[in-house]
Amino acid sequence: MKVDALVAEIGSTTTVVNIFDRIETENPIFLGQGQAPTSIGEGDVNIGLKAAIDDINKKLGIKAIEYRYMLATSSAAGGLKMTVHGLVYDMTVKAAKEAVLGAGANIHMVTSGKLTERDMVRLKKIGPNIIMLAGGVDYGERETALYNSELIASSLLDIPVIYAGNNAIVEEIKSIFETYEKGKNLYIVPNVYPRIDLLNVEPTREVIQNIFEKHITEAKGMEKIRELVNGSIIPTPRAVMRASQMLRESIGDLVTIDVGGATTDIHSVTDGTERIKNILIDPEPMAKRTVEGDMGVFINRKNIIETVKIDRLAKELDISVSEIEDMGKSEIVIPTTERYIKFIERLTKEAIIVSINRHAGDYRTYFGGKSKTLAFGKDLTGVKWIVGTGGPLTRLPARVEILKEIGKSNREDKLLPTQEAQILIDNDYIMASLGVLSINFKEASLKLLLKSLNIEEVYREGICSKYYTQG
Description:
With about 475 residues, the chain is of the alpha/beta class. The protein is built from 17 helices and 19 strands. The strands form five sheets. The protein has a five-stranded mixed beta sheet, sandwiched between helices. It has a five-stranded parallel beta sheet with strand order 6-5-7-8-9, with helices on both faces. A five-stranded mixed beta sheet has the order 13-12-11-16-17, sandwiched between helices.
């Protein structure tokens, strides 16, 4: 069987392949999906990929699939590991973090100020895929970024380094890396925090994605997949963010929630409301991602169980504590029994509520001569749509009801979406795949995403759809 595109999504627990055809026509189609456990434990992610392809061949009743393009996303082996080093935590370090997370990377270390010997020991132990250096607004402080650059360039670390700080010292930064014959490792991008009221994170995100494509060999077998792929390969979270940004252009402000086996990712694409902008202390990017590495419903479910408390879980689900303990240790990735489904639904709900509360900003009231209320962090109050993707939120029976809990949980001290926000589900579970497909086939990707979300009509002039179906 010949098709246009096969897109592989290699996750921490599951590998998914999606097949698309007619992507250069007015009517692109999604043909089907195959799944299999990701095979990192077996020493080669290609084993899981082959099993997922075999699964879709079986579902379609064919012997083999031939494709024009193969693309991929990956969050296997911990995804893209980065460390971030800036000047002042509340300014340049925060801006650098926004750039890194929005690019689909996971942050394993953050420092502000000059790096210490202890920091360098920790940095070498982490062994990140990419190091990011920031520091100082344009034409501002110079010494910290120069010192940190010298320390890293002179070390034994031989990995890509992105410099996204004060543009007045770019030539000096280049000279430092060239002195230690590390010029090939250095990537210069515009300052992520050029002035105190502006974030500029998109250029850095694009460079991180390009480096990822060039160096995606961390999971065993990924170098073989790089040989198979004749299109783009990007971090899965970056693909979800690309799809979210594309969707926002058509239907308006939204937040996408991606619950996985290892993490829960929140992607918000909104400028916020004018009311909150007037009292917001620090700038926030329009497209923001946070990742909660302790909120996965499979690999990290013990953390969620501890958050809810096992006795409370047993009471809510009318299940014994010992049965909760057994389900917490189960190796079954996809739940099939009613009790196990209810258990995963409850964990998913907790993961979502905890994660979106960490993502959203809040109000703080200060008392002096007069009380004054200010806003800090990301404003989600103007979000029109809440989009669910990832395994649990595309397959669990109670997925829509779970997402509605976001609005219900708003105690009005947080900048959360309201109960007026509408729920959309990525029913075909193809959002990440469409994010990478959109790099070359944006129009087809948008049409396929709207179909998956059951949106029937979209007004292109910034007015959201009047016709859609939930769930």
